[in-house]
Specification:
An 8-stranded mixed sheet has the order 1-2-4-3-5-6-7-8, sandwiched between helices. It has 13 helices and 8 strands. Strand 7 (248-253), helix 11 and strand 8 (272-277) form a beta-alpha-beta unit. By secondary structure, it is of the alpha/beta class.
Length: 314
Amino acid sequence: MIRRFLVIALLAIGATVSHAQQSLPSSFQAKTIHSPEAADIFVRWGGKGPVVVLIHGYAENSDSWAPLAADLMKDHTVVVPDLRGIGKSSKPESGYDEKTQAKDIRAVVTGLEYDKTSVVAHDIGNAVAYAYAAMYPDKVERLVVLDAPIPGIEPWNEILLDPRVWHFNFHGPDAERLVAGRERIYLDRIWNDFTGDPSKPDETTRNFFAATYAQPGGMRAGFAQFTAFSQDAKDNKIFEQVKLTMPVLAVGGEKSFGPLQAVIMRHVATNVREVVVPGSGHWLMEERPAETVVLIRNFLDSPDAEKTATCLAD
């Protein structure tokens, strides 16, 4: 009887753990770094070795990188900030354009006394990472972008016609009033529209991120990321005139951007490697974490980045 009770208890614990919201490793240090651009950026970091900065996207925060951070920290120093306005970073009234946020990231890197890094980004983090690489090209050793467009970079105008990107133009005081207290409903629409698996992100993860955006000022700041797109598009047209030369890995989910991610990056970079993750939608860290971690690690670690990236769908 006791043995049966213990087995049931262990199974219950296992079920709880398997459905718990993933978070960054508990060994990571944390601090808030003031950006000269009038924001306080919360950052966690840990591990030892070459420095990698992970830049999260919208409808998430830095905890979305948990699977990748846990793997890379074995032999890399992993730096994981919350973008301004999201998570535990401050929520200023302005400064949500990608150039300003790139300066935030630079303040984090130098504030931790690092200099050159690799950069991995997802979703709106792609635009921030692109601006960072364009503004500080000698500080970025390798760049990885996961499944999202870059404002102003073709086929940007075609992407804007996709009804699933309705949220790009949904912002302002009235939108804030409509979503207040209904953050989970709003975010569910975004998660559902871009997933390849309706069960991902799971319920625990959705509740966790919805609570993050439900913080005071959270939705105002979240919407501000999209308000800045028109300025971002203008800035990126200027950046595009000078191509990135560092190795770039463009990762698309098969059921989302797929090979289009590499098409976008070849407009702005000369050394682009393409990967399509089979079966995945947009939320790669939630839908296909193991496969995505392996391909990113292989790209970052290979002495010859040109030979590391192949289409996993082949």
